[in-house]
Specification:
It is built from eight helices and two strands; from the N terminus they run ββαααααααα. By secondary structure, it is mostly helical. Helix 3 packs across helix 4 (111-119) and helix 5 (130-140) packs parallel to helix 7. The longest helix is centred in the C-terminal third of the chain and has 18 residues, at 216-233. The relative contact order is 0.06.
């Protein structure tokens, strides 16, 4: 054990592992490349973090890779090279999958945390409500205009296509099936408003059938006029008398 300048360095021996495989078993072969120098367990006792029990984020001069012991504050995973959010961070920042107000607030205040929470599945809907959650999201943005029934049919697929078309977000081949990946893509893509196309009148402007022939009243009037004309041509208002031969009537 060597001490000096607040640095503790511990050396150790790496002994080879021996094994005796049974007949018929293939031996396990492990490739090993010795490091340029022995690993070191280090602790800086002169910095406040070490004395309070908090972890020290890697900095210039640290060996790589390093083993870090101590408390890591929630939301600081990236500083320590931790790829997934810790449970403490999720508990502090996560929100229900259908809480749109909290979702938008975190998107504005901490975009990186928002992206990590959504992409890692910490705000996914329950497995049995994925289709319903998607329909609710799409209906809220006027992309889906049918009932919320959890049936991912043709109308739901068209709604997803309409969302990606309107928002400009890459669909990445999603939309044909109701999955958590589709839900995350829509939540990360952000809100949009789908516009309903105006419906045009497809009926032709054909004349009505009543305009092609006279009304029944007009027909009777014509017939009456014709009869009056016939009476006037007979030459009198009295009864018409037809004579079969030559004679004088008084």
């Amino acid at each position: 054990m060597t001490f000096g300048s607040g640095l503790h360095a511990q050396s150790f021996d790496a002994r080879p592992i021996t094994f005796d495989p049974a007949p018929g078993e293939a031996p396990l072969v492990v490739a090993y490349e010795p490091a340029a120098e022995l690993p070191r367990l280090i602790r800086f006792t002169t910095v406040p973090e070490a004395q309070s029990g908090d972890a020290i984020a890697p900095r210039a001069g640290f060996p790589a890779p390093s083993i870090i012991l101590g408390r890591v504050a929630s939301g600081t995973e990236e500083s320590y090279g931790i790829e997934r959010l810790m449970p403490e961070t999720v508990a502090q920042f996560a929100f229900p999958y259908n809480d749109v107000e909290s979702r938008n607030a975190l998107r504005t205040s901490d975009p990186e945390m928002f992206r990590a929470l959504v992409s890692q599945g910490h705000v996914d809907p329950p497995v049995d409500r994925v289709a319903v959650a998607l329909q609710e999201e799409l209906r809220r943005m006027n992309c889906y205009r049918s009932s919320i029934d959890g049936d991912w049919g043709a109308g739901s697929r068209r709604a997803a296509t309409e969302y990606f078309r309107t928002s400009g977000v890459n669909d990445n081949g999603l939309g044909s099936t109701a999955t958590v990946e589709l839900f995350r893509s829509i939540v990360l893509g952000g809100d949009t408003t789908c516009v309903v196309a105006a419906q045009t009148n497809t009926r032709s402007n054909r004349p009505s059938s009543s305009g092609s022939r006279p009304a029944s009243g007009a027909s009777s009037g014509s017939s009456g006029t014709s009869g009056g004309t016939s009476g006037s041509s007979s030459g009198g208002s009295g009864p018409s008398i037809s004579g079969g031969g030559v004679g004088v009537f008084r």
